[in-house]
Amino acid sequence: EVQLVESGGGLVQPGGSLRLSCAASGFTFSTYPMHWVRQAPGKGLEYVASINGNDYYTHYADSVKGRFTISRDNSRNTLSLQMGSLRADDAAVYYCARDTQTGFAFDAWGQGTMVTVSS
Amino acid sequence: QSALTQPASVSGSPGQSITISCTGTSRDVGYYNYVSWYQQHPGKAPKLMIYDVSNRPSGVSNRFSGSKSGNTASLTISGLQVEDEADYYCKSYSRNSSPYVFGTGTKVTVL
Fold it and tell me: Nearest 5°: CA angle at B84, between B83 and B89?
């Protein structure tokens, strides 16, 4: 069974940093592109970042470019999101998601981890 | 990059069919056949319902179907059931600086 379990969310002050993790199991992690998607309270889904399976090529939403870094450790089946210079509008539930491998759709999602940005 | 445009809400009675539209531009929906649809129940993670415009993942009911014309994609739910009441989001691959863009979301209500 495919499982994605996020962790690392919490309360952080504006301007602070936080690192999210996503533990993957039930599939060959290294062969799948992975993504982060967020959802602010009461709002819609927003794409955050992507990383390829083996060449580690990354993409970012304009709203997080230069502040967030996506990475993966294929030996530990773990996806990470290092978030810096956090702002109030970064507060959201952050989901990790697996790509369909053929690309362009997200076929497995974690349960999400909440990030709150407040002083 | 602006979100794809969806109606805020759509409703229907059990057994009826409803259609949710998703309007983008010639740089996303109109350019690629990489539109996917996600169902999200309150407090839950999204679930993939349609990928590559009209393909259903294994396990998704054939009551869900997708199509596209020009810059607008559509999700049709036929034989509406109570459990279909949820939020639905479209997503497209994009030629813009961010490779993916989601729709604004549609709340489906079963009357």
Answer: 140
